[in-house]
Amino acid sequence: MPAAPLEVTKLSAGYGPTRVIEDISFSVPAGERLAVLGRNGMGKTSLFATIAGQTRRYGGEIRLGGQDIAAQPSATRALSGLGYVPQTRDVFPSLTVEENLFVGLKSRPKSAIEEAYTMFPRLKERRSNLGSQLSGGEQQMLSTARTILGQPSVLLLDEPLEGLAPVICEELMAAFSLLAQSGETTILLVEQRIQSALEFADWVMIMERGRIAWTGTPQALSADQETVDRLLGVGGLH
Ligand SMILES: Nc1ncnc2c1ncn2[C@@H]1O[C@H](COP(=O)(O)OP(=O)(O)OP(=O)(O)O)[C@@H](O)[C@H]1O
């Protein structure tokens, strides 16, 4: 599937009666990269979970490649081209690395898992290890690779660098950049490592209490210390 645009219109959602996403509208052109930033608890994970169909939606549209997927169950959204790598890195602990990757293939031939090994050679070295035996960084690679094997046209990455050593972060960001440069996937990234996110993204959106508080380019944000201090906290760019 080629990259697709994502358009979100007047989206509101939450957990049971608790509304945590308030009337959000934004769009990402096909093949571009959006960084979603904000302090803890501002709704970034909930936004991605809502796009993926894992919260209660109160209203609004989510269009992927022009098709409204908002009423689809999450499994159907994945078939429509939406890839979601949650913060929790949902690796199957009792399956091997290779078996985890097979799950991501959908109807593709088994030989396609070589794409995952090219992207993350470390996974090839660990191909017979159980998911439960992997380090945090390896789990992140596996969770990401499994989703990418499904050839998503839009990919949501929720805090992929959380808790990882700098060298692993560099490895992951390099893999995401290669993927973005292939032009086959539109990428949305939530990340607390703001500098890494700004280097990666074409566009930035900052959330505050379930709403969009700022949008612009990474260059505009880097030049706007007042916004950085107010919405991301002092020292946000370091
Ligand atoms: N399963 C849930 N049930 C009820 N409320 C929740 C649930 N998950 C998150 N929330 C609430 O929704 C709000 C937004 O949380 P969310 O995790 O989306 O923010 P975030 O910006 O991703 O934060 P962080 O950077 O800490 O991951 C918070 O007030 C949080 O307490």
Automatic annotation (TrEMBL):
Pfam families: ABC_tran
GO molecular function: ATP binding
InterPro entries: AAA+_ATPase (IPR003593), ABC_transporter-like_ATP-bd (IPR003439), BCAA_Transport_ATP-bd_LivF (IPR052156), P-loop_NTPase (IPR027417)
Record domain ABC transporter: where: 6-234
Keywords annotated in UniProt: Amino-acid transport, ATP-binding, Nucleotide-binding, Transport
Similarity comment text for this entry: Belongs to the ABC transporter superfamily.
Protein name: Branched-chain amino acid transport system ATP-binding protein
Species of origin: Neorhizobium huautlense
